[in-house]
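Reading a protein record of the kind used here takes only a little practice. An example makes this concrete, so a full record is given next.
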Amino acid sequence: MSIDLTIDGAVAVITMNRPERKNAFTREQYDALGATLARIDADDDLRVAVLTGAGAAFSSGQDLKEMAEMAAAVASGDTNAGGSTGAGGFTVLLDALESFGKPLVAAVNGVAVGIGMTLLPYCDIVLMARSARMRVPFSELGVPPEAASSVLFADRVGWQRAAELLLTSRWIDADEAVAIGMALRVEDDAALMESTMNLAHEIASKSAYSTRVIKQLMVAGRGDRTRDARAREEALFKALFQGGGFGG
């Protein structure tokens, strides 16, 4: 998947572009998206970032073929294996999302699975296409949660809803995502990007200082909690991978 970056005035549009694999992530793409976010954050001419996917998916999550290869590598003693064991691109992306200092708006254009959903609490505003749906399949795959979703989901949607999403691996549609607070609103598929860009440009037209400090103040309280949750999750992934596979 390439990570495409286009600039529209003060708005940067990031497109996850691997439609033939439903924008599934490999280690290299985690690195690329993390680097793109860092580049936008460092550019004073850019005030807002929009994140979306190419084709029919937002992101189908981790490339499971690569994930299985990483598990096998860790089990064989390769301490440099990447992914959700705490090394490599996954950590690069999460660090970039957590430290991103500008408003980040997600335009969820299709299915959002795994990291496609767990990155959404790092976005300040989420708009969803009417046909989009999402889920986190951790309990189905036999793996721990990721990306601090073990705490951020409860922050976003409340404890019981978060527990249900994490424990059942079930799908939720766009209307339910809005109802529980995972997204702000639903847009018709054809209108999603226009509505998202209108919102992004409205935000970008405001004081650059104010938008930055509003973002900083809103996320300030979650930093230590997010890092601690990530450390716990990554330790469990590493232990699981050292055992040679996914959980039962």
